[in-house]
Design a protein that fits this description.
Helix content is 35%, strand content 25%. The protein has 8 helices and 11 strands. It has helices spanning 24-39, 70-76, 112-131, 203-216, 220-224, 230-245, 256-270, 273-276, and strands at residues 12-22, 46-52, 56-59, 79-82, 90-92, 95-103, 136-137, 161-163, 166-176, 179-187, 247-251.
Length: 277
């Protein structure tokens, strides 16, 4: 059946980049490199999908490093990285991560951070619908970046994706130099409370956080009642973005310029102790 295109958006061509696994510093460096390339006029808007190896605890741009239990992370083989975006901690494992880079002048980014969350969430919802997930956009629970908890998945921001009142997709956005980077995570399977072991909490606090997370967050597997692979979820989300946001997605890879930018950003920022601290 032919896709119904969104009447509010003129058709646009974006790159579709499907990457494999990489460490946290590399993944964050690539996302920023795509944004810089776009605002420099050297690249197209992009939709990127990727995974993480080894597992990684990512902290929001302004989140205290003290929220992380660095000793526990090292013992468990979990990397720690600081994102360029705001928000709270996420343990990246058994998941599909997406990132979107576009210009602030794009109508899909119109209306500021919260409104553009709503617009971009249309693509997330359409893709989840293709997988058979009955999801909705959260409303009125908290604003993106609100300082309520140390864990991203504890409470949804406005227009993030929930299933049965439980958060399924966590997203964050950063605007710089006329460009927009939004990225977010879809947990495919596993116990979302695993993150608690990576945080600096008392024993009682850990148990309370585990209980809250299991009540307030959900994986794709639990939402569907079956397992969906990274490739299946990526294909569904690509189709959903194309349908909801009136996109032509051209499969591609990083340019040589973007690879060089990413390597420098990894070295100077995301793998550097002073950035993480």
């Amino acid at each position: 059946m032919e896709n119904m295109r969104h009447p509010l958006y003129p058709q646009a061509t974006w790159r579709l980049i499907v990457d494999g696994e990489a460490d946290g510093a590399t993944n964050m460096a690539v996302d920023e490199a795509l944004l810089l390339s776009l605002v420099e006029g050297a690249g197209l808007p992009a939709l990127r999908f990727y995974a993480w190896s080894p597992p990684c605890l990512s902290l929001g741009r302004n989140q205290p490093l003290a929220d992380a239990d660095l000793v526990a992370c090292r013992a468990a083989g979990v990397d720690v990285v600081r994102r360029p975006t705001g928000g709270k901690a996420i343990l990246h494992t058994d998941e599909l991560t997406y990132s979107v880079v576009l210009l602030q002048t794009d109508p899909r980014a119109a209306g500021g951070v919260v409104e553009s969350y709503r617009r971009l969430s249309e693509g997330l919802l359409a893709g989840l619908g293709r997988l058979g997930v009955e999801a909705i956009q959260a409303m009125g629970q908290r604003k993106p970046g609100a300082d309520l908890a140390s864990i991203c998945f504890e409470t949804p921001s406005d227009y993030e994706i929930t299933v049965g009142g439980r958060k399924l997709v966590g997203s964050a956005q950063w605007r710089a130099r006329g460009g927009v980077l939004q990225h977010g995570t879809l947990p495919l399977r596993g116990d979302l409370a695993r993150i608690v072991a990576c945080l600096a909490l008392s024993d009682a606090g850990r148990e309370a956080q585990r209980h809250r997370l299991r009540a307030r967050a959900v994986t794709l597997e639990e939402s569907l009642g079956r397992t969906a692979s990274f490739a299946q979820a990526a294909e569904a989300w690509a189709d959903g973005f194309a349908e909801a946001l009136n996109l032509i997605l051209i499969p591609g890879a990083l340019t040589a310029h973007e690879r060089a930018l990413a390597a420098e950003l990894r070295r100077s920022r995301y793998a550097a102790c002073d950035w993480t601290e």
